[in-house]
Design brief:
The structure is a single chain. The protein is of the alpha/beta class. It contains eight helices and 16 strands. The strands form three sheets. A seven-stranded antiparallel sheet has the order 4-3-7-1-2-6-5. Helix 5 runs parallel beside helix 6. The longest helix is centred in the C-terminal third of the chain and has 13 residues. About 40% of the residues are buried.
């Protein structure tokens, strides 16, 4: 699998919410071979932080040679990215990991929080299959994803914890009705573990295949530090999210008992 170490020029770094940003980068080598679900390991040059940060690839334009990242400020590293301006260079390693396996059936994409970022790229690849999209957030302000998903999805379902937009409740509360009302074959999900675990259980109950994209802290991104490992529920072996994933069949990640 190709992996590149490049200096990507920032073409845009725009605020979406107070703590959420959209960054567009010139990275033709990565754009040419990236697959939905893969991520990049990034770092500001001369950063005060030693470690890189993993960010899912949200969009790819092969013709323009660009990729985009949608990220939330959660610490010093991501705060540094938010302060960067157009024309600056960001050190990028990628694409890293194994992405989603796109199947033949009709897809349903389920995301929560910043887990939606890599699902935008996935939805673009799935658009010929008329994908359904289920997105959840705490409030309507957090559900800005239809702006990016709308051109790819056949239909978008929205849930908010406070009921300020769409269905009042969590994504997993609306999921059974969507499966009952629509012919869905395959589910692809990314977000908090507790959400994905519930999605996986519902998928099994309804006889649907389910792939999950795991979000883990990654120090090295190359399988050396072992900081992102988990026990495969099928084989009992230790798996590395950064190199074996981040996408796995749900049954390998979660217990169904």
């Amino acid at each position: 699998m190709k992996k590149f170490f490049i200096e990507g020029q920032i073409l845009a770094n725009e605020k979406i919410l107070d703590d959420v940003y959209y960054m567009l980068l010139e990275a033709p080598e990565i754009a040419d071979c990236a697959k939905p679900g893969q991520f990049v390991h990034v770092k500001k040059n001369n950063s005060i932080n030693f470690l890189r940060r993993p960010l899912g690839i949200a969009e790819v334009d092969k013709k323009k040679g660009t990729i985009s990242l949608i990220y939330r400020i959660i610490g010093r590293g991501t705060a540094e990215y938010a302060a960067m301006t157009t024309g600056e260079q960001l050190s990028i390693v990628g694409p890293i990991g194994n992405g989603f396996t796109i199947k033949e059936g009709r897809p349903l994409v389920v995301g929560g929080g910043m887990g939606m970022a890599p699902l935008v790229f996935l939805a673009e690849q799935l658009q010929g299959k008329k994908p359904l999209v289920l997105v959840g957030g705490k409030t309507k302000q957090e559900v800005f994803w239809p702006k990016y998903m709308g051109k790819y999805a056949d239909k978008i379902y929205v849930t908010t914890d406070d009921g300020s937009l769409g269905f009042k409740g969590f994504t997993v509360q609306l999921l059974p009705k969507i499966l009952e009302d629509n012919a869905v074959d395959d589910i692809y999900t990314c977000g908090p573990d507790i959400m994905m675990h519930s999605v996986a259980r519902i998928a099994k109950k309804y006889g649907k295949s389910c792939q999950v994209s795991m979000e883990k802290r990654m120090a090295c991104g190359i399988g050396v530090c072992l900081g992102c490992t988990f026990t495969d529920k099928v084989t009992g072996k230790r798996r590395k999210v950064c190199v074996d994933g981040p996408v796995f069949p749900a049954e390998e990640v979660f217990d169904y008992e």
